Amino acid sequence: MSKSKWVLVLYPNCVDCRLQREYSDNSGGPDTFEIDHELSFLTGDGSVIHSEIFRNKKYRKGYIDWDSVLRAKRDDVFVHKKHLFIPGDTLTIRCRMWKSQGSLSESVKCSIETQIVTECKTFVGAIQKFSSLRTSSQNFLNILYADSEFFRVMDLYIFDDGKLVIDIGLINYEPTNMYMFKVFIMDAYKNKVKSCHGEIYDRQPFYIPLTFSRKRLIENKELYLPNDELTLRFEVFCPRISNYPSKINDMTYDYDCEDIQATITNPMNSNFASEEYHTESLILLKKGTNIENVNSSSKEHHTEEGAGKGLEKIEDMSYDCEDMQAAITNATNTNSSKEHHTKCLTTLKDGLISLFSEGILCDTKLKTSTDNFPAHKVVLSAQSPVFKSMFATDMREKTSSCVDIEDLDADTVHKMLLFMYSDTVDNLNYESAKNLYFAADKYNIVSLRHKCSDFLKQYLLHSNCCEVLLLAENHQDTDLKRCVQDCIAENDEAVFSSDEWKDLEENHPRLTTETLRVVYSSLKNRKT
């Protein structure tokens, strides 16, 4: 506007975003500019998560209005609502600006994308005479290779039940950064066998449980313990730090690196946690946690914020380390020549996915209005008691080679089948989660219904809560309904003034009356 230049400044500790007039605005723009503007966090499909509008703000060159801030809790961005704020590991912020007085001669839209350059630090540690190690013991890992001094300590704990936990402490830690890590067991053929992965938010040491137990390693010692030595490879991905801010497409991001609020999350929720590695839920435990109680459930832990400052360079994304799951060689063939080490065990899950994707040995098909999906009766019956009843009793589907599905679209049926074969759901969004929820309830696929319900709970906004409330009511999901009612209680003014609520009142008065009681009770509790 009027040849002026602007930047968005992002402070990742909270997360805060503010608008700033460029210091080097020598393009002929006015010295002082009065504008209205709006800052918004967007989801992957462009929906608004949170938005703030600021009126009659005067900006001089280089001026930043500290009161005009778009803010989100770091825990929400990186943990609780990560799928909303950073789908595909991308944070999207929209800035809309217009003159406080007068009119614009034209409307201009531009998009700018920046990416953080990363580097991978690699460390290899080993423990000799692993089979002789006692339970309830702490064992030091001998560092065989390290491309930089990054870890302060690296110990392996063996608990009474045989669980293995790595104790890691960092030396070079930038408190603003989040570090992503992977841990591999190196097998007898130097293949990397993935054992765990996750995220580190804090400078304190962490306990990292491995998916392999002591018993499993010893039972397959020819493969995992060559010469009775356990070798672990660590890969840590972190941002590269520069003394100067970079500039991409006339957009500068200046990071004020105050210490983050530490959050210890389930590593399986990290960007590196693709569903194919969900062999066991992992946790990170802060130093000082009772590690005797390590189990496979996820936990959260919070520490207080510290302070520090720095600048972070933003460039093209690059990963320097190989990112592939190592092949797991059949231990029973270890007496054979190592020329055959590429022979791998195919998991049951991989085999089922292969049968589904290639359409091999299918004995039925699911037919929608637009597509046919070949499938296997035994798999459908194992996952769904509804399909089991169809194929095992004297229903038409038992003798027919086709199941007609008229109330589900092809994409929903495909996602449902993929889950039944692989126990994973990919590329969920609000609409597909709603449709899958309906499908899961119809065919009584309990685990899929839980996944969709959890997704809808996290996706709740005041603009869609009425729709989700009705969905929960229709499917008699009391847990989801109560969650939606709590959301409405927190956003009562926005919800009750919406057209969606008025439609709900008109068509479902009993449900809205029940919800109003919940909101009233919630308001009373707040006052007391």
Automatic annotation (TrEMBL):
PANTHER family in alphabetical order: SPECKLE-TYPE POZ PROTEIN (PTHR24413)
InterPro entries in the cross-refs: BTB/POZ_dom, SKP1/BTB/POZ_sf
Annotated source species: Araneus ventricosus (Orbweaver spider)
Name of the coding gene: Tdpoz4_7
Domain (BTB) ranges: 362-429
Protein name: TD and POZ domain-containing protein 4
UniProt cross-references to PROSITE patterns, sorted A to Z: BTB
